Amino acid sequence: xxxxxxKYSMIVFYKDYQPFLQQLQELGLVDVTxxxxxxxxxxxxxxxxxxxxxxxxxxxxxxxxxxxxxxxHAKNLTPEKALEIYQSAREKLAKLKxxxxxxxxxxxxxxxxxxFDANYIEALKKAGITLHFYELSEKRFEEFKNRWxxxxxxxxxxxxxxxxxxxxxxPTSESFEFDLPELxxxxxxxxxxxxxxxQIAAEIENQQNIxxxxxxxxxxxxxxxxxxxDNLHLSKAANxxxxxxxxxxxxxxxxxxxxxxxxxxxLLNASSAFFIKEKPAPDDNTPVKLKNNRFxxxxxxxxxxxxxxxxxTTDMTPYCAPFYIFFFGFCLCDGGYGMIFLMxxxxxxxxxKNAVVRSLGWLAFWCGLSTLMFGIATGSFFGVxxxxxxxxxxxxxxxxxSQNLFYFAIATGVVHLLLAMGIKAYGKAKxxxxxxxxxTIGWMLVLISLITAKLAVPKxxxxxxxxxxxFWSAMGLGLFFMFFCNSPGKNPLANFGAGLxxxxxxxxxxxxxxLSYLRLFALGLSGSVLAMVFNSLATxxxxxxxxxxxxxxxxxxxxxxxxxxxxxxxxxxxxxMRLTFVEFYKNAGFEAGQRAFTxxxxxxASLRKEVxxxxx
Length: 616
What we know:
20 helices; extended
């Protein structure tokens, strides 16, 4: 349900403007319209600080989750100082890790030369002897070693990974030419490189300990980001006021729920502000707030993947919630998979502390229950037909077969679309008057008449032929509404022309929309078939060795069903949303909203900070 709103147009004296906004923030019930906001330097700094605190909290949460031994560190810093130390440690850690990689590579290169003293190289150079460093494959080195020894003084230093490292000593005064790329002389010994690595590793550990101590400030960082967000919201609201009377007056627009108007008006009457209260107009940018029961609230986050409904229209959440569960079970369609979702969802809902995560757990529970019921109806449990068991053999004919599922998917689509049309007709009648709903009602009469006369009544053993008075009366009334009640108050000929055009579009649209529901049948069938395939692979590919047979079967079944469950669950999550957002929303006349109701208020973190500061 969309919560009714009231619009408040307020005029405030410029000196009272900031205190007035602070009073509204204290009240926490008024959504101040922010129009064409352009951040100033102060607001940009606030946004940057908020992002830093949030990023730090998120990074530290990941680090805390990876730690096996949880440590409790004392807190003796302000959030600002703690963030500064954490960011500095993080930057140093990144540089140290880069330096460690570089030094490790240098150490690997120096390993071949051992503890070669760089000072000794310089001493030889002063004595008139220059050392030249080379590297060559062992095979080629052995081939040309004797020939090179005739001309040069070659000393083999080491042999690693089939490569020989050697040096050639030559007089500094003589010209030296050698047909190989010369290596750079080592700047330090291998031992010195290892010592540098140890020092860098110790500093890395030190910076990592600083970061670990920052984990204690996760809640402080989150709270500080919330306080700064409150300041940013207040600043945006303050900069959205429109100046009048040469800047002496500020014009402001705000919104409040109808149920809170008494508290809002008590504050406005006690302030120096002048205000006008009115109901929202169709052209207003009215914020939207949803209010549903506990069950329907589980599906609000799914509905908001698309967008919020426009104010003055119908909230689709209560109507979509049961169908989404139904569609999910239809797509997954296996009792074993349903049991997994049901138990996993129940575990999350009972064990997790976060309210959002708990709601996702309950959503998984209901979807798992629907899947379990469909698995029982179709007789499928992890791809095994439970109707083949001797105990259930007498009830085998009760399980739904693929042909029945095909027709059931079509019937589900027809019911879903008729419900959407009913919601559309109700919305038009409620907001624009009953005559505006007659065209949609006409469509519903025609469809219900055709379905009843052609399909439903024959199934019940009754006959209402197409020529009967009941059928033609319903059809005639429906066609009249369709062709002559499209635009109440307009010329009948114009209505008839619009009716013909709408009929063409609606006939093709409804046919395509109905066929879209066959995806429920296709997904359910494909998941069941894949489950049976993995079962067959497990039995067919297992060797006839007692222990190995069971082990191979377990591996194939575990991997196969995990893959099938993952793919099928993804389809069962996405395709019901597609049927909701495309087929159902279109036929229900859904109109997208522009923004959610976000009152100017203080977060719990800001309130705690205000209580704490006077005590300090």
